[in-house]
Amino acid sequence: MARARGSFRVLLGAAPGVGKTVAMLKEGHRLRAEGRDVVIALLETHGRKATEVSAEGLEMVPRRHVRYRGMLLDDMDLFGVIERHPQVALVDELAHTNVPGSVHEKRWQDVEDLLDAGIDVITTINVQHIESLNDVVREITGSTQKETVPDKVLRSATQVELVDLPPETLRERLSAGLVYKPDRVDAALSNYFRVGNLTALRELALLWLAGRVDEALKEYRSEHHISAKWETRERVVVALSGGPEGDQLLRRGARVARASGGGDLIAVHVTSEDGLTGADPGLLTRQRSLVEKLGGTYHQIVGEDIPDALLDFARANNATQVIVGVSRRSLLSRWLGRPSATSGIIAKSGDIDVHIVTHSFVHRGLRILPQHRQSLGLGRRIVGLMFSLVSVLGVSWLLSMFSSIQSAQRDALILQLLVVLSAVIGGLVPATVAAVLSGLALDFLYTVPVGTLHVLRVSDVVTIILYVVVGLIVAIVVDNASARARQAQRARAESEMLASVAGAVLRSDDPLRAIVHRTREAFGFDCVRILDRGRVIVSDGEPLMSSSIADDGGDHDTISLSKDGPSLELYGHTVEAGDQRMLMAILSQIQTVIEHNDLERKASEVEPLAAAEKIRTALLNAVSHDLRRPLASATTAVSGLQRMGDKVSEQDRQELLGVASNGLKQLTDLVTDLLDVSRLREGALPLSLVATDVVESIMPLFDELDIGPWKVDLDIAPNLPAVVADPSLLRRALSNVLVNALRFTPGDKRVRIAASTFNGVVEIRIVDQGPGVPDDRKQDIFVPFHRLGDTDNTTGLGLGMALSKGFVESMGGTIEPEDTPGGGLTMVISLRVADPGLRVGQPIPREERPDPSQMLGETTLNLSGAISDVILPLPGEGPSEERGLDRFINYGITRAPGDARNDGRGTDAADVSSTPTAVAQRTGNNGKDEHNEDTDRG
Q: Residue spans with biased composition (Polar residues) (predicted)?
């Protein structure tokens, strides 16, 4: 008797460290306590104490040892496990590649052998090792996983369980050294274990598992022949007919889905199998967009019978409710044998709830009988009519000459054939004429009395009438079939045309011009123009007419979807009725492209205005607040020296001069920073991009900032590649960030500087252990004149981090704040790796340099205009260059206390205490501005 295959249980995790191995071992202990024979076939502890402790008490099959290229490697002993033959084998890391020389290349192949041997297997795997998700994981994390497991292996599992852990908790475990060794923690946190990466991988694992649950449910329903709906969650299907009532149905469906606790909204339009439909393509395009806005999905299916196709789709998707609109056909139309699709859906819905929604388009749709659309030209109809007359009369004359009454049945079929040919050639009217004439011919040739149109017997009258009716029915069927064939051929051509237009749009940099060009070529127009709000935005070709006619708008057709939307002007020939539908579909694509372009343009216009207004407000606040403090300090000190003259002691004189010097230095630093920020935005900052050694930029900071080795820890990866940077700007950016980190790090702790490379980028991480910054305030760090929680005016004016961001971005890099595990803030500066062929100090080729204006356009505020508005229009006379920042400084410092230009804002005797030392204490470095209420850190 063949041995039964073992059960296969998989523990799935989003990332390493979520606890899959420990969960596997706990399950092993539970099964062992129940009396099952459990062994550890393979366990990878990675040095984790918790894993080692969890494995205690479980039998472990000894590993086999293999010598490979001078190294002693170990791996699972497949034959040893099979020989031991436990009931349950615990196998860690299913996607692992075996040691060279093993029976199988991959561990999952070993597991297949264990299962075939009748051994139950419990194993672990991370989502990044699933074959079908490998490309997605690479896009998320930037790293390629070479060890993968085919999806069919996982789908064959008896049970797949998710071992989940929130990203923040996983990062805390990583920081605590519970996942990797301490020397790998920083690199892991900054690369693979970013919060965004972990969140995306977690969602990926949940979606994959949810998909497998859906597959298992469908498989179960199929195996047990269950067609009834299972209301695991509400799925609302909205049937779209392509009419104007679709908008109302979709909104009602969205409300029903929301009211049911977040159900799914699914919109469906059924197209007939022959590709012919009376739906308006423009309306369907608009309704598809509405579905997406409402958070639903749009589907277009093909079916011969609309109710059957719709309900089959609903049952396949386990829908619980179907929403349809009241039929647009009149009651009389339905009584005369044309039932509506709504009635068919209700009759066949079974256990699916059907909601009938009334609307304002009821009874406006179809006529009692379908309107016959003449698709043949006038010439062909005339030829068909002439054929019917000549052929029936000619054949009747021949039959009268050479036929007898015994061959009446044969002759009737000959005449019936003429009716069919007349229908094929000219349509319904010639076929009707042929049917009537052939009926009269049969009466004349074969009905007693022969040779007359008189009929003596009632049965003969009935026979002739039936013959004519049959002829008419055959003519109608043949005419409809011919019309359907022609329509199907046209529908095919239209589909090819739309596919061609769509392809041209996707491949073209100018979609509108591509659409217009393809439209002119396909329909043979001389000129096609797109008008929007009365203005020609795109034109292809030239109208073959005088300019006066073109200007007057004559001799052309215009097609539009709405009064306020874009329209098509078509020159060359009159638009045929059959082309209207196709042109409306093309126009709906044009409208979508125009709306997309308008949104992009508005976004690009609004963003700079908002940024400029924001920085204007901040700069005005700074001028009235931060600039005034050092200026007032220096002015007061100089005024005190002027008033007291020789009365001041040497000690007080030196103190006042120190106050003035310090104030002027602060003012100079601020002016330099303002000018640098302005130059950044205007592209006027001197930028010399070379291959730069990161270490050479970091080490000089210790001397420049007078930092002792007890304040900073260095962790720089060996063989760090050169980066694309301006060395001087990089040092200034690093200096600003480092000073900021030192200011907020407690005295008993150190700032940490780490540098590593990953995926073509070098990351410099400056880590402090201060109070940290809330997530909703992190971007405020880079806003000028903001100091998060810092009210000390002596520590700067809040431009340091804004400048650092501008410097780094101008070099093509990024700077982002992150939380420090355990508390604090980590600033991550990322720079592109330079070409390995370049030596340190060698200029970056021009074609590889980033464009500072493009790099700064999205993230850095435009300061130059605001600075000009606030700083430059100062009182005074003289050339404009004398009224800039230099004059701003001189204007505030050199004016005398009694100068009329003081405007009451200068410092007079009443404002100064009797001693110069008191002046210094009130306005010097130790003073606090009572208006300083900044709450931002910079």
A: 912-926
